[in-house]
């Protein structure tokens, strides 16, 4: 997160807690939040914080809930991926990282499990 991004996030927080936002605040928050972008998940973490508590917002109050939002998306993803016979291990890992990022970012909706061809109905006893 850049200082300009941090200032935008702090401006959102100020709408809730009436804090003042200066250059030093933006630089400090950018340093603490350097590993994440300013995105809808960071904004949602701020809103979630103030929906649940009246405590003063800190960078930790953004990092932890944002990570939880993204982890929840991954947990609900139902990713089915047996790999591709024509790809190398490096290609598989790169594709898998891209898929994981897309799910965590919310750019890819959770998949719905579907029975395979010739699958037995769930109520049928095994043969």
Structure write-up:
The protein is mainly α and 127 residues long. Helices cover 57% and strands 0% of the residues. It contains 5 helices and no strands. The chain has helices at 3-17, 23-32, 40-52, 59-75, 89-105. The longest helix is centred in the middle third of the chain and has 17 residues, at 59-75. It is elongated, with a radius of gyration of 21 Å. The termini are far apart. The model has no long low-confidence stretch (mean pLDDT 87).
Give the SSE order as H and E letters.
HHHHH
* Major beta-sheet overview: none
**Oligomer classification:** single chain
N-to-C span: 57 Å
Structure class = mainly alpha
Please state the CA-atom Rg, rounded to the nearest Å.
21 Å
Low-confidence blocks of residues = none
Q: Tell me the fraction of residues in β-strands, as a range.
A: under 5%
Q: Specify the overall morphology.
A: elongated
Strand tally is 0
Helical segment tally?
Answer: 5
């Amino acid at each position: 997160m850049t200082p300009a991004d941090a200032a935008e996030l702090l401006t959102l927080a100020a709408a809730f807690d009436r804090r003042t936002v200066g250059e030093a605040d933006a630089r400090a928050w950018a340093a603490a939040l350097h590993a994440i972008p300013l995105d809808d998940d960071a904004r949602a973490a701020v809103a979630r914080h103030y929906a649940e508590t009246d405590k003063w917002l800190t960078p930790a109050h953004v990092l932890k809930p944002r990570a939880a939002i993204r982890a929840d998306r991954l947990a609900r993803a139902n990713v089915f991926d047996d790999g591709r016979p024509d790809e190398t291990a490096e290609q598989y890992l790169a594709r898998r990282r891209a898929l994981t990022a897309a799910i965590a970012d919310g750019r890819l909706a959770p998949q719905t499990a579907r029975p395979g061809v010739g699958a037995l109905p769930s109520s049928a006893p095994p043969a």
